[in-house]
Amino acid sequence: VFTAPGWNARGAILQDGGESNELSAKSRWLAFLGCGKNSKSRLGYFNEVTELDQSLTRVQMMISSWAKYCPYDVVRMILRTGEEVELGVAPQQVTIFFSDIESFTTICERLAPSQVLRFLSTYFTLVSEIITDNQGTLLEFLGDGILAVWNAPLAVSNHAERCLTAAVTMQTMVNKLSEVDPTWRQALATVDKTTLKVRMGIHTGQCLVGNVGAPSRMKYGLLGDKVNTASRLENCNKRYGTSVIISESVWREPGVADNFVCRPLDRVAVKGKSEGFTILEVLSSRSDASTQQLVLAGLHIRALEAYRNLDFHRAVELLEESEKRSRSIGESWLAARRLRDEALHYEKNPPKEGERWDGTTRLAHKSFDDSPE
Fold first, then answer.
1. 153 prior amide bond cis, ω within 30
2. Which residues sit opposite 90 in a β-bridge?
3. What percentage of the chain carries pLDDT values higher than 70?
4. How far is CA 194 from CA 36, 116, 180, 254, 340, in A?
5. pLDDT of the residue at 223
6. How does residue 58 score in pLDDT terms, banded at 50, 70 and 90?
7. Apex CA 50: angle with CA 48 and CA 55, to 5°?
8. DSSP string covering 14-35, please?
9. Smallest Cα–Cα separation from 206: which of 230, 221, 220, 225?
10. Which CATH number is 91-254 given?
11. What are phi and psi of 307, to 5 degrees?
């Protein structure tokens, strides 16, 4: 039966395709069925197969639409288990990614809604592809922001490294969009800039991962303090004038130090936390790093070491050199300036003997908009 002329897996359509061929295909089927004594049963079988194919097509379309509303890997897991989803989470070591677009509020105020939609759609389409290509899971669009995770729901080896690969690729993509895409150029004109900055924060740690919400309405997501930390790191870019900030826990993950050039910026305790940790800026993939970027990373490593060892004079010298080099190659100079100012302060007013001091900057705010000129 399935060798009948014109049949294919998508229904009674000719193999060379097209709705215009549907009647021709059905005519071939009717000729194949013939007018003998079994033609009625054969015709009934043909109709059943056609209806089954149409039903499968509708199911496929619904699954495809469903996957546009929640992560595809989650949809696939639900289909494989064949069970009704329930609330539930489990601990999992993951790498968390937050991002948002600088000056997006101003762009929204100055562009028509249709222009804003085109602007965001172009950006989200490209970013979501980059995340997926690097084995990440896009969890949510948060206005102009993005929340993504690596190593959940599916296990991903070297998940921090893959996340950073995605982040660096996104930064390259944003720079190219600013140059060639008319929608982006229109958005840039509203804020008097030649390129838009996308701020990113990345943190690795253990979260509760799974279905959260209410029995009648739930989503696949993350719970835990590590999610807040990633969000704070994204916002720290405002303070340091940077684009991609990672925590030291990311830096320690397999593949990161070997494949990326990062410069330590500071030791911080984010709002709501008493313990501090080192934060780093991702300058480049190691394969694409310039000599100047490598020198810059080395300057910051030595400067922070001197700063924490109370050698504030040496720290000031190194950070002033870093600021100078940063300006000359177009990297952010603000991080060096901020830490230099701190070192100058402590050079004149050193920590008192017996005082517990570890060089941690305690950030009292969730967001920072006080960048000096």
1. yes
2. 209
3. 81
4. 76, 18, 11, 36, 29
5. 95
6. confident
7. 95
8. -TT--GGGHHHHHHHHHHHH-S
9. 225
10. 3.30.70.1230
11. -60, -45
